[in-house]
Predict the 3D structure of the following.
Amino acid sequence: DTGVSQNPRHKITKRGQNVTFRCDPISEHNRLYWYRQTLGQGPEFLTYFQNEAQLEKSRLLSDRFSAERPKGSFSTLEIQRTEQGDSAMYLCASSFYDRGLHEQYFGPGTRLTVT
Amino acid sequence: AQKITQTQPGMFVQEKEAVTLDCTYDTSDQSYGLFWYKQPSSGEMIFLIYQGSYDEQNATEGRYSLNFQKARKSANLVISASQLGDSAMYFCAMREGLSNTGKLIFGQGTTLQVKP
């Protein structure tokens, strides 16, 4: 399977705990995006990387959120001191960027529930 | 500010019939891209079809076609010959062209249910 993969698929955590999600993009894709989707809404952009560089962060991404893509391949999204409002689906997408933009391919998402 | 509006929270269609899902957008950019994604209950966003703002012809991909009316700022998705497997949430999205970030702005989605 050469699609985008995300782990874990589901995470239940208690308020105040830290959680980390992983995304493995399609191997030849140099761009990686994180989105958050709450129930009944469309996904909202959080941040994106080109290779290992994080080029933009949304204002939605509070100081408790950090994302990395250390070697320009997989990426991790960490949430520290989780709050109930962090409960959502976290989606990762990847694309190939050269001199033009190409469509993004999404992973299955990680559903976070904060109790 | 850029915005996508999907005014149909839910739609029903009989199997084998065609259905149109509405999408209007707002942008001041001359260059942009419009996308439709399908999200089944499993959660994965599946890319369906793309229309560039400078494309003169409406995009088609198999049973999917995009009815692009630039002056009206609409990009409706038409699904022909609906199948039971088409039951899902459908999202319209826009990508701004000038910044090159590639980030997508999504609408709120339309839930489609196909009846046998």
In short: Chain A has a mean pLDDT of 93. The interface with chain B takes residues 31, 33, 35, 40-45, 48, 55-56, 89, 91, 93, 95, 97, 101, 103-109, 111 of chain A (CB under 8 Å).
